[in-house]
Amino acid sequence: MNHRTSPSALSPTSVPSVGAGRGLGVHLLGGPTAVLEIGGLRLLTDPAFDEPGEYPVGPGRVLVKTAPPALRPPRLGPIDAVLLSHDQHPDNLDVSGRAYLTEAPLVLTTAGAAVRLAGTARALALWEHADLPRPGGGTLRVTRVPALHGPEGSEHLVGEVAGFVLSGEDLPTVYVSGDNASLRIVREIAARTGPIDVAVLFAGAARTALIDGHLTLTGAQAAEAAVLLGARHVVPLHFEGWGHFTEGGDELREAFDRAGLADRLTLLSPGRSAVVAL
Question: Ranges for the Metallo-beta-lactamase domain (predicted)?
């Protein structure tokens, strides 16, 4: 595989189709929110479109959003499905994102989120899959994989989170981590799925006062995850735009450089797009 990064920002009026062909197109809108193009389908990850500001997450605790999204829902263009890692935190699903889900044709997510959201939300159990019809024939398989949004033992505090693996004939195998901080889980996914072509990793080394430890991958862990997965390309999401991230693009770049993996990293800023092609 090889990759190219678009030399220009997204259109000011819509997310353009990149014509990913047999590869993966990624349009970063900000935070965990991106449009993924694969197999002729357009998937949206964790919709968060609200303005910068303070967002309560519990008694006396807030998350601070520091940057607006590159585009908002009316300008997204058609989306075939939403991959929602979880619904309990406003940096992954905010007020505008919830409104968007009421019009989405399909939302794949956890059991709890599907109950709370209703509508077109569909629960996937661990290792269960949904096959989405591709416009040119065949299907894109979306498999729910585990994720742990913090250190071991923090599940009762952070709640259930989903990751996803995308696969299909003549398509790259893509891992979308969701808010996962566990390399043990990455090893489990690698053992069950085999090598991953593209890892879309939620990074940023997020921290809050509630948990003693990181809630998402550090840059060093993201580089290690790339090795564990056998991923030839890594596209990080969710490492900017919020005050609880302790690492950003510079730390990701430095970590991949130190690990000798700089050629595997496709680092986007909001409003930019890239294609990772077979």
Answer: 42-239
**Structure confidence by residue, pLDDT tens digits, 18-36:** 555 678 999 999 999 999 9
CATH superfamily for 2-277 is Ribonuclease Z/Hydroxyacylglutathione hydrolase-like (3.60.15.10)
Q: In what order do the strands lie in the sheet with 2-9?
A: 2-9, 272-277, 24-30, 33-38, 41-45, 81-83, 107-109, 121-123
Q: Yes or no: say if 165 and 175 are a contact pair by the CB < 8 Å rule.
A: yes
* Distance of alpha carbon 143 from alpha carbon 79, whole angstroms: 18
Q: Which amino acid is at 254?
A: E
**Domain segments of the chain: what residues?**
2-277
Q: What is the pTM of this model?
A: 0.90
pLDDT digits (tens, 9 = 90+) for 204-248: 887 766 776 677 888 999 999 999 999 999 999 988 888 788 888
The DSSP code for 112 is H
